[in-house]
Amino acid sequence: MIDVREEPRLRGAVRVEPALWCAGFAFALVLPLALPVPYYISTAITALMFVALAVAFDIVVGRIGALSLCQPVFFGFGSYAAAILATRHGWSFGAVLLLSMAAAVVLALAIGVPSFRLSLHAFAIGTLGFAVIAMLVARNWVGLTGGPLCMTGVPPLSVAGVELTSLTAQYYLILAMAAGAIGVAFAIARSRLGLALTAVRDDPVLAGARGLSPTAFRLTAFGISAALSAGVGVFNAYFQSVVCPENLDLSYTTALLIMVFIGGRSSLRGVVAAALLFTVLPQMLRLTEEWRLVIYGLVLLVVVITIPDGLERAFQAAGRLGRRRTQPTPVRKR
Q1: Alpha-carbon torsion (292, 293, 298, 303), positive or negative
Q2: pLDDT of 17-45, one tens digit each?
Q3: Where are the transmembrane segments (predicted)?
Q4: Residues 172-230: pLDDT tens digits?
């Protein structure tokens, strides 16, 4: 049986999709030059952060089919690690980034080993428990995290001794990080690891009978996702220059769930499109502050009703329509 989510790899999409990715990346490169307005650049930075987070989240939800509700834990862990190491010990951005991503893998193993022993439904509840614990630690361990007073005074972002104080420079840094996250997800999808994750997701019993360890592959995907999320958290600490317990809020999980399920699980282009749509749209709706949430909810409702299988299904339909139009009309023989 062919999984409908793998349909974009079929003919037509294989030729068109790389061109669309290149066009999108080229547009992202020139965006700060075309719209040199701080508000727009700041919104684009936030959108790219959510692109990276959603792509990382989809590695767990889409690739292995495990509904993790503790993704903000890794994001917040990266933010707090950056704030603590930079403000109290003077660590550089690169060192903080590498250490935080490595430590996030260890944290993912500590959470994943007991959680993946549960059924997939209980896994969601178990990871939710870890998210609540992390939130309580951030709020109540005042000596380490600052508690409700937050951690302030994160130094300006610098890479290789060059301070990236302008929004444009920070935009290009998070653009590189988001491209890296997309590249990791793309490489996983096209590798033997991706095939193994798909096998574990679709039929773990059969995968185990073929010599694959479902728990080991799930932990691998969980660790990669945690490392990518922690990296975004590190950038967020420098970008915001303050880290608060709200960085671990469950609203991040809600937003990521919307992006992944509306985009289409295990669909890279769908998740990226949904992350951009549902990050930029609320910012645009601030022009009508009173009706912002109403319009946002209506847009979300319309998308769910009209394309319940996510944006990926809409992309597939558009691809089929395009191929029909490009196919030559058969000549009738007289």
Answers
A1: positive
A2: 788 888 889 999 999 988 888 988 999 99
A3: 12-31, 37-57, 64-85, 91-111, 118-138, 169-189, 219-239, 251-281, 293-311
A4: 999 999 999 999 999 999 999 999 999 999 988 888 888 889 999 999 999 999 999 99
Please tell me the distance from the alpha carbon of residue 179 to that of residue 189, in angstroms, as a whole number: 15
> Which single residue is written with the structure tokens 């990346």?
25
Which amino acid would we find at residue 23?
A: A
DSSP lists the bridge partners of residue 243 as 151
pTM of the model: 0.87
Distance CA 244, CA 230 (A): 15
Q: Which two tokens stand for residue 238?
A: 């420098």
Residues sharing a CB contact under 8 Å with residue 193, sequence separation 6 or more, in sequence order: 217, 220
In this structure, the number of other CB atoms found within 10 A of the CB of residue 9 comes to 11
CA–CA separation, 246 vs 48, rounded Å? 19
CB 273 within 8 A of CB 190: no
Instruction: With beta carbons less than 8 A apart as the criterion, state whether 316 and 91 touch.
Output: no
Number of Cβ within 10 Å of residue 273's Cβ equals 22
How buried is 112 (Cβ within 10 angstroms: 0-12 exposed, 13-18 middle, 19+ buried)? buried
Structure tokens given for 203 = 């039929």
